[in-house]
Write a structure and sequence with these properties.
By secondary structure, the chain is α/β, with parallel strands linked by helices. The protein contains 8 helices and 12 strands.
């Protein structure tokens, strides 16, 4: 079984299409999405349409999905993020608004081995930024692996006995093999708005047969994404950050 796990698309159509093209060559069996389909970028309707064509798909909501669909207020968002959320609310058609409203809250167990969440397994809006956050998170899921998003940073936390190790994934392609006696908390990075100073989309594939998890970074037409942002009248800073990976 091959799972493709991705997070934080943020209305980036070009990144999503590049991932789908990549996935076709890898014979993916199922997709796991960790939240934040919309926000920041300028193609929310198109992304939701493309997203719904992925099958089978296991998915949960993110904080931007919640805010756009009216499940959350804007008080926790910075002004630029809030402006993008308001723009997205106006841009979405009725059917796609309903789709966002019906996204499930994490965490969700995909099967006996895998849990998915957006922020942390105990709080969907909490950011896991380091080993201390990860230690707490391991107490709140019972499966071997929990995949999470929200930070836009590709990371692996490995718990062996009472110790938690952090791996910062910086390579264009990086692979680990799941150990029998360990548990894992893994962030695939962001598909649509990377923040680790690498402008390429980030996601991973979990092969349950070989027990290997492989991180990938792939290029997409970010200049087209930038032009869509500017044409839509969204804050220019959202376009600038895509060429900086921040």
């Amino acid at each position: 079984m091959k799972y493709l796990i991705f997070s934080d698309v943020h209305s980036n159509l070009e990144a999503l299409l590049a991932m789908k093209s990549f996935a076709q060559k890898k014979k993916i069996d199922a997709y796991l999405f960790l939240g934040d389909l919309v926000g920041y970028n300028a193609s929310p309707n198109e992304c939701i349409q493309q997203f719904q064509n992925l099958s089978p798909l296991y998915m949960i909501r993110g904080n931007h999905d919640k805010a756009v669909s009216g499940h959350d207020s804007l008080h926790s968002f910075n002004p630029i993020a809030a402006a993008a959320i308001i723009w997205t609310r106006d841009a979405l058609n009725t059917q796609n608004k309903l789709f966002l409203m019906n996204l499930k809250k994490g965490p969700q167990e995909v099967n006996q081995e895998i849990t998915i969440c957006h922020g942390a397994p105990y709080d969907e809006d909490y950011y896991i930024f380091g080993p201390f956050d990860a230690v707490e998170a391991f107490y709140h899921f019972s499966t071997k692996i929990c995949f999470f998003g929200h930070t836009h940073l590709p990371r692996i936390y490995i718990k062996r006995n009472n110790m938690v190790e952090e791996l910062i994934v910086e390579q264009e392609k990086f692979q680990i093999k799941i150990e029998e006696g360990a548990r894992y908390l893994i962030n695939p990075g962001s598909l649509g708005q990377p923040r680790d100073r690498n402008i390429k989309s980030s996601f991973l594939i979990f092969n349950t047969t070989t027990r290997k998890i492989t991180f990938y970074r792939i290029s997409y037409d970010y200049r087209l994404t930038q032009s869509r942002i500017l044409e839509a009248g969204l804050p220019p800073a959202l376009a600038d950050r895509l060429s900086l990976g921040i």
